[in-house]
Amino acid sequence: MHNIILASKSMVRKKILEENEIKCETCPSNVDEEYIKENLLKEKASPELISKNLAELKANQISKKKNGELVLGADSIIDLNGEIISKPSNREEALVILKKLNGQKHHLVSSVCISKNGSMIWNYTDKAILTMKQMLDQELKLYLSKITDETLYAYNVYQIEGEGRSLFSKIEGDKDTIMGLPIKQIKKYLKQYK
After folding, report:
1. How many domains does the chain have?
2. Which CATH number is 72's domain given?
3. Is 174 a catalytic residue?
């Protein structure tokens, strides 16, 4: 399998790649995601397009500096009835987000993009549907008290393979998509890449 550069500081994504025998180094892109999201929303871009564009921008930015290397960019977006929910920057925001998602069905859109020499050469976007249980405020606060800051800021408020699983009554879609890295499709592409 090819070595790859991950245009992210996400330890979760790095771990998934390594568990799948894809050697990678991380090189965060530092793309201003909120600014790009705002502009794309003004243009009425779909959550899928926003997620794909962010993954592509991250990959392209690093790929320009790493000539000849394969660079993987990834992005996940929560879409609640057309409203894009961003990652929280503190625990108060995390609680507000959980209250918004409480008892609701939302889409989690994950996009990945592989770039080489500053241009995208492959991309994939997938969507999962998650239905959150109706929970009391104190239950949401209890959940937040159980998770570390690292988990809170890395996983879009819920860590699906850990404590976050308990928040949902129904999950439809690929677990890898929910974790932010549709690994089966990445492996399939890398296998046939020459």
Report:
1. 1
2. 3.90.950.10
3. no
Distance, in Å, from the CA atom of 52 to the CA atom of 74, rounded to the nearest integer, reads 8
Contact 51, 76 (CB under 8 A): yes
- The pLDDT-based confidence of 129 (bands split at 50, 70, 90) is very high
Q: Which domain holds residue 20?
A: 4-192
Per the DSSP assignment, residues forming a β-bridge with 83 are 80
DSSP result, 28-87: -----HHHHHHHHHHTT--HHHHHHHHHHHHHHHHHHHSTT--EEEEEEEEEETTEEEPP
159 Cβ neighbours under 8 A, 6+ residues apart: 147, 151
Identify the active-site residue in 32, 75, 79, 176.
75
* pTM across the whole model: 0.90
8 A C-beta contact, residue 36 and residue 49: no
**Residues 71 and 62: beta-carbon distance below 8 Å:** yes
Cα–chain center distance at 35: 17
User: Nearest Cα to 131, choosing from 77, 173, 90?
Assistant: 173
Q: Which of 86 and 169 is assigned the larger pLDDT?
A: 169
